[in-house]
């Protein structure tokens, strides 16, 4: 690809290949103390899930031990983990949230 600069000179432009950022899954982990309603609220507030989707993910957490709340670039995933963990501790719940590479 070429273009002309301010003096009318032709310059060759190189195309650089940019890779998509690595994605991370944010997982909610089951515990025996965090109320199901709180998990649904977290999924709706922090992960923008619709009520039926939030309930399905909450049931996966309850029955299978973990559920995927979302898939994000690393910085977004880490931020969501920090926000949810802080909110859970503020409310007195031991809910564990982790991010792992997809």
Quick gist of this model?
With 102 residues, the protein is of the alpha+beta class.
Would you spell out the secondary-structure blueprint of this structure?
Blueprint (H helix, E strand, L loop, with lengths): L1 E3 L5 E3 L10 E7 L6 H12 L3 H14 L1 E8 H17 L5 E6 L1
Antiparallel strand pairs: 1-2, 3-4, 3-5
Key structural traits:
single chain, 102 residues, alpha+beta, Ribosomal Protein L30, Chain: A, 3-stranded antiparallel beta sheet, 3 helices, 42% helix, Ribosomal_bL12_C/ClpS-like, peptidase activity, ClpS
Report on the structure:
The structure is a single chain. This protein has 102 residues and is α+β, with helices and mostly antiparallel strands. The chain has one domain: Ribosomal protein L7/L12, C-terminal domain/Adaptor protein ClpS (Ribosomal Protein L30, Chain: A, 2-Layer Sandwich). Helices cover 42% and strands 26% of the residues. It has three helices and five strands, in the order βββααβαβ. The strands form two sheets. A three-stranded antiparallel beta sheet has the order 4-3-5. Strands 1-2 form a two-stranded antiparallel ribbon. A hairpin with a 5-residue loop joins strand 1 (2-4) and strand 2. Helix 1 packs across helix 2 and helix 1 runs antiparallel to helix 3. The longest helix has 17 residues, at 74-90. The two termini are 35 Å apart. One of its GO terms (biological process) is protein catabolic process. This is ATP-dependent Clp protease adapter protein ClpS. One of its GO terms (molecular function) is peptidase activity.
């Amino acid at each position: 690809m070429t273009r002309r600069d301010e003096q009318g000179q032709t310059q060759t432009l190189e195309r650089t290949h940019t890779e998509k950022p690595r994605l991370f899954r944010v997982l909610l982990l089951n515990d025996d103390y965090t109320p199901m309603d709180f998990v649904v609220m977290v999924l709706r507030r922090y992960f923008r899930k619709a009520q039926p989707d939030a309930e399905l993910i909450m049931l996966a957490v309850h029955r299978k031990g973990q559920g995927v709340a979302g898939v994000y670039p690393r910085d977004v995933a880490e931020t969501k983990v920090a926000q949810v963990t802080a909110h859970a501790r503020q409310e007195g719940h031991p809910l564990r949230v982790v991010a792992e590479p997809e």
